[in-house]
Amino acid sequence: MSGFEFEYTLWIFLSTIGVFQYTALKNNLWGFVVLRNMPSTTKFLSVAIVICSFLWFFLSEDRNVPDTAEGIDGVVQTRWFAIGAISAIALLSLISSMTNHRWGAQHGWDSSAQNWPPIGISWIEKTTFLRAIFCIIQAIYKNGIIWKIR
After folding, report:
1. C-alpha distances out from residue 147 to 46, 136, 150, Å
2. Cα gap 17→105, rounded to integer Å
3. Which of 32, 34, 37, 92 is the most buried (most CB within 10 A)?
């Protein structure tokens, strides 16, 4: 990995953190918001992270470099974009699940019920990502069904 590729991946990583937090906040997906109790702070920090990472990446040096010189080839750029974005979303899902762990326990699925837990992104309004995954795995194990078509 060259220095340019690392800086590009870091820019994508930071920008994805800001966009993901802002989007989760605006759509009331509280299980993804790290600072759930401070929505205005989250909104400000999200916008600040996106703006600062953009300014850092484009103003630190000349980035208009063709891939035939020291730039990044399109296929390689796509790979580093995916790595940066996916790792940011995975890290935020883990951190928000840890910081909202107690909150998510109060709004989760009742495992003693004989029904399936809610499926879909809207459940993240009430619980954390890791708790939702755990409940779905628990329901699959409890019911002995691997595939459930609704």
Report:
1. 38, 11, 10
2. 24
3. 32
Residue-level pLDDT at 14: 97
Taking the whole predicted model, whether its pTM rises above 0.90 is answered as no
pLDDT band at residue 92 under the 50/70/90 scheme: very high
Percent of the chain with pLDDT over 70: 86
Express the helix, strand and coil content of the chain in percent, nearest 5 each. Answer: 65, 0, 35
Supply 26's token pair. 């605006």
In Å, how far are 44, 119, 128, 133, 138 from 106, measured between CA atoms?
28, 18, 11, 16, 17
**Distance in angstroms (rounded) separating the CA atoms of residues 110 and 65:** 55
Distance CA 32, CA 17 (A): 11
Q: Which residue has the tokens 């703006």?
A: 51
